[in-house]
Amino acid sequence: MDPATHSRRRFLKSISLGAASLAVPWWAPRADAAPERRPNIVMVLTDDQGWGDVRSHGNPKIDTPSMDRLATQGARFGRFFVNPLCAPTRAAVLTGRYHRRTGCHGVSAGAETMRADEVTLAEILKAAGYATACFGKWHNGAHYPHHPNGQGFDEYLGICCGHWNNYFDTTMDRNGHPVKTKGYVNDVLTDAALAFIEKHKDTPFLVYLPYNTPHSPMQVPDRFFDKYKRRGLDDRLACIYAMCESLDECLGRILAKLDALKLADDTIVIFFTDNGPNGARYNGGMRGTKGSVHEGGCRVPCFIRWPGHIPAGHAIEPIAAHIDLLPTLVELTGVPMLETKPLDGVSLVPLLTGTPAQWPDRMIFVVQGNRGAVRTQRFRLTVERRRVQLFDMAADPGQKTDVAKQHPDTARKLKAAYDSWLKEMRGGTAKLPIPVGHAEMPVVEIPTPEGTWTGGLKFGGRFANNNWLTHWTSLDAAVSWDIDVVHAGSYAFSLVYICPKADVGSTVRVEAVGKGVECVLDKAHEPNFVPSPDRVERKEVYERRWAALDVGTLTLPKGRTRLTVRAVKKAGNAVMDLKAIRVKRMD
To answer: CA 123 to CA 372: how far, in whole Å?
Structure first.
């Protein structure tokens, strides 16, 4: 038996976590007592907020009273770990499984997509009668059934990709349809959550709030930004702390709503973040930031409150991770456990209640690209290409000294466990096909970054999310996607494009299953970039207004095929800039 598998099995056995125990809550009343309502869940996840971006973690430059209050009213995890990037953390949270097992292995171009057959926390709770909603940054697949509505959430409002272009008065996805919103993104999402809580106050509910700040672009209302500028911070740090305080205010509004509806005692509230800070700033002296497999890239705040059940001010020192939240919440709520793929996480209920009969050491793994790490209570082993280092986190929390030579047996054991675990993960990096034709989402917009291209085509900016293809100057250029047609029939295609007047007249062809349909690009569309209220210059692309060009229809059989767009005639210097192709099921 390999060391990693042995360690997991021994840990699971030692805390007696089985399917039967998950079906009955530890707080359940006697059989002859009146039935209790199952607890609601509000799970708040913020984007790029680091461990040090809360005042109660020793940062005097930021104000987060709601987050601090939540920490004092419930349990505070001292060492809670996630992935160093956002989409993998979200997949692990929703499934209780390491992200590569779910199909998610990146943050863009389709690599963020989680397989549809993964069983999520929302699906488990929904099967038990919970009303379920997600408001915010999903980042685990945009196309049904990978969309939130296909993964157990009754209601969804937010963005499905990794980051958005603008945070004020923007367009979001509501249950698969674009909707124009008014106001700052944090407030819009919070308003939706408050309305959902009000609507479902008499029945158990799950509200998952994965906010998309303080991820860039750096945009925040003046009243928050001006406060931190007066403290002498530079524009970037002032904006990040301002966005965190905006989030804190939103959390305070959620807590106040629970109080007003007398639901606070019946609601489990969880706050945590998705990776380390997006840049160098106060982080408790830890090494690494977002993207790093060192402690500072993976250790985040985590507070859990349930009055009357979780002791107030309870500090938890044993290591824990994102994969543990699903089994923990299943046990806390007492809902029947659905049949899932094997879980990697364990229930933290013994730690939360303060009465662990036995809590042995464990291994928590992470991988990011060709770098990875394994964490035990005392040690962190990092693997960066061929460099292997061991750090004693108890004696050296800043990871300044490699102690592999002083502890060779520990280094060998942890490296063997990591190698074995990584071998298990290698099957999870295949790109999933894009499903089209589901009745629940008859129109699918497929972005160009989710495809492959040839002939000199280039991105319009640095990062894939919200990007487009440009430099279409050659007739050898083409872009194609691997699609999975789930319903045989007629499909209409349209291109989401920009074309200056001087280049109008090119002929474009859409092909699939050996057939094609053509159209002439006969309408110019040359918009300026949308003004963006950024506090500092962004690295991502700026927003543009795109036009749609109907191409025609093709009859497609059921199954996987390649969908391709190419130009067969070029009228000017370039054919077009292409953002996406829309595929609409017609029957």
So the answer is: 30
**How much of the chain is in helix, strand and coil states, percent to nearest 5?**
25, 25, 45
Residue 479 main-chain phi, psi, to 5 deg: -130, 140
CB 264 within 8 A of CB 307: yes
DSSP element (H, E) containing 459: strand 458-459
Rounded-to-integer distance, Cα 230 and Cα 553, Å? 58
pLDDT in tens, 329-352: 999 999 999 999 999 999 999 999
Residue corresponding to tokens 């295609």: 493
| DSSP codes of every residue in 237-304 | HHHHHHHHHHHHHHHHHHHHHHHHTT-GGGEEEEEEESSS-SSSS-STT-S--TT-SSHHHHEE-EEE
Distance of CA 546 to the CA centre of its chain: 26
Domain spans of the chain, in order of start: 3-15+48-287+297-364, 365-429, 434-585
Q: Which fold has domain 365-429?
A: Arylsulfatase, C-terminal domain (3.30.1120)
CATH of domain 3-15+48-287+297-364: 3.40.720.10
Q: What radius of gyration do the chain's Cα atoms show?
A: 25
User: Strand, helix or coil at 323?
Assistant: helix
Q: How crowded is residue 383: how many other Cβ atoms within 10 Å of its Cβ?
A: 20
Q: Is the pTM value of this prediction over 0.90?
A: yes
Active site residues: 86, 139
Residue pair 551/495 in contact (Cβ under 8 Å)? The answer is yes
Reported as a single tens digit per residue, the pLDDT across 163-213 is: 899 999 999 999 999 999 999 999 999 999 999 999 999 999 999 999 999
Q: How far apart are CA 398 and CA 284, in angstroms?
A: 9
CATH of 434-585, one of 3.40.50.1970, 2.30.29.170, 3.10.620.30, 2.60.120.260: 2.60.120.260
